[in-house]
Amino acid sequence: MSCVEPGSGVTMPLNTAPGSYTRTFQHEQLASGPNGHCSVCCRHRRACAVAVVCALALIATSVGLLVIFVTKKPHAETIDTCMAKEGPLPPTGTADRLVVHPGPVGGVGIGYRNVQSRMYQVHVRKVVGELTPTTEAFVYDAPNRVPTVEGVGAGTHFTMFDIDPGVDVQVIVTVLGTQLQPVATAFVRPDRYNATARVQSPTTVVVHLHTPGHYYVNVNGYPGSHDTPLLLFVEQPEGPIAVDCGRAVIDVPSVASSTVRYFERGFHQTGIIDVAAGNTVYLAPGAYVNGSIKAGWAKGVVVRGRGVLSGEVLKAVDQVHSSDRQPVPYRYNGIDFAVTSDGGSGANWNLVEGVTVLYPPGYSTNFIDAPSPLQVLFFKAIAYRYSSDGLALPAHSSARWSFLKVNDDSLNAGWASHVRYQDIVTWPGDNSAVIQLSWGAAAGMVIEDVQFRRIDVVARAGTVPWAREIQQGSSSLIAVTQMRGATIRDILISDVVVYDDMATLLGISVNVGDPAFGATFPGGIPIGFIQDWTIEYLNFLCAEIGVGYRGPASQDQISLIQTGTPIKSWVYLQDPSDGSFVRNLAFTRLLVRGQCVSELSQWPGFQVVGSAGMSFSC
User: Fold this and answer.
1) CA distance 517 to 219
2) pLDDT tens, 492-512?
3) What predicted TM-score, i.e. pTM, was given to this entire model?
């Protein structure tokens, strides 16, 4: 439920982080981060140089020669340096474009449903002096087709159009659904791009915006349209994109070829789409492709377009969250870059841009083990099943300007270092942590140099009673789940706005009670370390503060006290000792309902287990 809505008379301070209202979409420059690399001969150039030196020294010694090698460490391109050189290139002509995308021809699916919304109709026009004529934008209907999964809403409606940054646009929303009539109130999120919404008539809402972004339009508050929301996916017009740290440019394909799988406007039934190294899959605006994209370990792969990739007719693997899932030969994911190896041939980069993934039977994407740095731009995912994770990037990769409404970890960095997530809008389900920094990270693993900037949690889909998932941290804003001896360090989480209730701010579980896992460590389970985290400019507009405590020593999970309302615990850590595994975790300017938190004691009756090593400042 939203506790602060426009027009309520309640004013909350907005984030004051540098760059909170950044609207630069081309080649955004970031501060250079430590130890990042973009495209190198192997993951770490220092390792490459040492290996070469050792090999040459061994050869020289074997023939009786004494050779002294002097090497100079080559210049390493950090992930931040590469991000500044990558992304959409500026347009060659005028930068005042409005591009409205068509829907599939006729709007009728392949014998199973109509994909056109009967809840909303949308018309768009530029605001330049006198109002220009409107163009209808196709509105998709993506109902919840997983009745066994509760708490993710009845469905989602969305439309897509593109604008150049700075172009003023008026969006006229006609509410067709009688259950939402008459329209009394309306608002739009996120706030950071200064979009506005006003009620024009009992059936009409007018939205004004001038910045590309992913917007949630609410009608009649809560519950109102919360279970059947309208989303506006407003992005930059398609064009050339710089990849490989700026060394190559990928343009929009116009036709199919030997290296381009081109899906035109309309409905396509494909099943699994296998993509070889150096090839492109393009989903044109209005293309609705029923299938799954599998690139394996190929490099130089491009998946892009403004079309829709739907998995609704594929075999479901995780329809229910239970222990009786049946094994299947291949877990269908939306876009999969890490299934089988083809030898790793091709260029040392991959690109995913613009595509909308619906109904993935497994994960929305699977990029964790991709062999090359990956750039993700303007990606969208709407998924209702459990285990429908959003984005999990490989090392030295970035995701920007994307939207995720998923029912498992939205932004996952639990297996890779030197990763960046920026300008992401999320709508988590009951089973979804927004930021996940571990899921069983193993002993000896080091996850470092990971950054999350400008993240908006515009709503929460969940209505189910809080259950064991909360105890594991799955419903946290930030989660470190089943930490098993890893070191997770040098983490930056900056400028996050949470609009609705969130079960937990920070949930950390070390999984100390797992007998099978514990048996592999006779001397005791190594916990690992949470070290050198900066969490700054977090703004909880609607957080309720609950009470969290550690349960009996024999239990693996955190127990939560019922307080008469759904638990809204704030921070909990699960720790078998005294919390010393947390080292230098610093919160700066944490706002809860407009009040900056400087110490935990200011919240009466609230406890944090394992809080050693944490600090708060305003």
Assistant:
1) 49
2) 999 999 988 776 777 776 654
3) 0.82
